Amino acid sequence: MIKHDIVVIGGGLAGMRAAVEAAERGADVAIVSKMHPVRSHSGAAQGGINAALGNREDDSPENHAFDCVKGSDYLGDQDAIEAMTADAPKQIVWLEHRGCIFSRLPDGRIAQRPFGGAGSPRTCYSADVTGLVILHTLWEQLERFGVKVYEEFFATALCVEDGVGTGVVAYNMRTGALELVHAKATIFATGGLGRVYAKTTNGYASTGDGMAIAYRAGIPLMDMEFVQFHPTSLKENGVLLSEAARGEGAYLLNKDGERFMFKYAPNKGELASRDVVSRAEWTEILAGRGIDGCVLLDLRHLGREKILERLPQIRELALDATGKDAIDSPIPILPGMHYAMGGIETDKFGATRIPGVYAAGEVACVSVHGANRLGGNSLLETIVFGHRSAEHATNYIRSAGNVRPSERTLKAEHDRIAEILSRKGGERHSGVRKAANKAMSDHAFIFRNEAELTAGMEALRAVRAAAATMTVADKSKTFNTDLVGLLETEFLVDVAQPIMLGALNRQESRGAQSRTDYPERNDAEWMKHTLMRYQGKTADPVADYSRKVTFTKYEPQVRTY
Ligand SMILES: Cc1cc2nc3c(=O)[nH]c(=O)nc-3n(C[C@H](O)[C@H](O)[C@H](O)COP(=O)(O)OP(=O)(O)OC[C@H]3O[C@@H](n4cnc5c(N)ncnc54)[C@H](O)[C@@H]3O)c2cc1C
């Protein structure tokens, strides 16, 4: 048995920030991660991280909070949003003092670029490789504090004894052994679920593992129907071209060369919030004003020098995938699945309903993004709530009594995986994953309606039945990626259903949930969170709408950009 005070599941920005904080506070903390921390999806973040530093224009945490509340289409919890925007400047300074290299203004202050839905330029950045730079800064801190990292450990289940969290069971990918990782506090930081969809900007590891693990253990998933489709992904491979491009002034054009965004967002144009821009693009494409199912991202007028200085990675990604050089050619793009607003339900300290269990980063629903996240707020969320959850957890473990190691969860996981390895016939997990991806991409995309979502639920029920028969061809113990792929597919199938059912139930359009049969936001009936509870492998989730939205001072208004 492995034993620590606190175990953090995931080594992305949220996980590393939590681990560093816990270590600084003197706790014995370890990270369990299915891959090396610096390979986490956080490293792909390009555009930047928001904080009201006010370096380019007057700004304040209150302005930042208002933009988040409006961006969330009034579904975000305002107390959590205010906590995040108030912590933001402190956390940027914390990163800066630990060696994070941000891009600069000529006078040496941290530079800030405009981002969608923001009232002033408040996105701090390191060229267009911000995530990677912060990830490496945190990795250095992890080394400095000697935090133990269990790499290539794949968490499969949460341990709960006497109503409190006691760690996880993890599959050691190098040896094929299941390990009991015993801890007084467990912090999930396993990132997003992009791979639920056929095409996504997310890495291959974003399979919703932590969400599914917590959900199976009885913690509700919140607001799962709100899936962000980013306006600028490449048709060829789904890869993201950051909002930094539009932040630096890039245009969106239809096939007639028209900057169409001003028809949809007269004030903000290309810098409206993401749900608005993605819907506008899709509307143009459906109306026949696209080119080969795409619209164009045009950077040419920014000039070679600015593109090479501020957006070098974007140019390279586009060049690799399309053969087109953004310096002299517009790039075909379309909306692509990007981010999960929903996740494990937590309070504003990252605590879940099970004492000793926390969630931070994309895996969590705090909720600071509500129905639509603003660009630059996710990196911020990982840092702020990584810090806050570790702060809460280190206080919690001081007062928590001794907890029993969950030998029974270890045994149950052992039996479950032995049964999977012994299966014969059945479906290959790659086929089941494709069917789940197709159901989601066909039925729960940008525009949704009752008939499509009902058909989507039916398709997912068939996927669920097939998932129960999945087999692996490889039965070996060393780096059995076939088995890990199967376990990830099980997680994907579990988290797909709350998305589809949440979208079907919510009879309104709010943020990223756009129902053609209910085109208006309906505050009277739907100003409430969706909680989804797991009902086992053979049943639909059950929805619960008892959690109200927390208001502080921002009254709902009509949302225009
Ligand atoms: C291409 C791209 C660009 C983006 N750009 C921006 C941006 O500019 N600004 C912004 O604010 N946001 C951006 N985002 C969103 C943001 O990067 C992510 O939401 C955020 O980095 C997620 O961080 P995380 O720490 O929660 O998870 P991740 O960085 O995804 O890390 C998850 C970790 O969990 C581990 N893990 C997962 N499952 C298991 C398991 N079963 N067992 C053990 N370990 C597990 C993984 O190994 C990994 O270490 C972008 C996202 C993408 C995909």
Question: What is the topological layout?
Answer:
Layout lengths: L1 E8 L3 H12 L4 E5 L15 E2 L10 H11 L6 H20 L14 E2 L9 E2 L5 H15 L3 E4 L1 E9 L2 E9 L5 E11 L20 H8 L4 E2 L4 E8 L9 H4 L3 E3 L7 H4 L9 H13 L8 E4 L5 H7 L1 H11 L8 E10 L2 E3 L11 E3 L4 E2 L11 H23 L7 H16 L6 H15 L3 E2 L1 H18 L13 H25 L8 E2 L7 H4 L4 E3 L8 E3 L17
Parallel strand pairs: 1-2, 1-9, 2-6, 9-16, 15-17, 18-19
Antiparallel strand pairs: 3-5, 4-5, 7-8, 8-9, 10-15, 10-20, 11-14, 12-13, 13-14, 20-21
Bound molecules: flavin-adenine dinucleotide.
Give the CATH architecture of the domain at 408-544.
Up-down Bundle
Biggest pleated sheet: 7 strands, mixed
> End-to-end distance, in Å?
55 Å
Give the overall pLDDT as a whole number.
97
| Integer-rounded radius of gyration | 22 Å
Q: With helices defined by DSSP (H or I, 4 residues minimum), what is the helix count? A: 16
CATH superfamily of the domain at 408-544: Fumarate reductase/succinate dehydrogenase flavoprotein-like, C-terminal domain
Given as residue ranges, the uncertain stretches (5+ residues, pLDDT < 50) are none
Distinct ligands, ions and cofactors found in the model: flavin-adenine dinucleotide
Percent of residues in β-strands: 15-25%
Strands, total number: 21
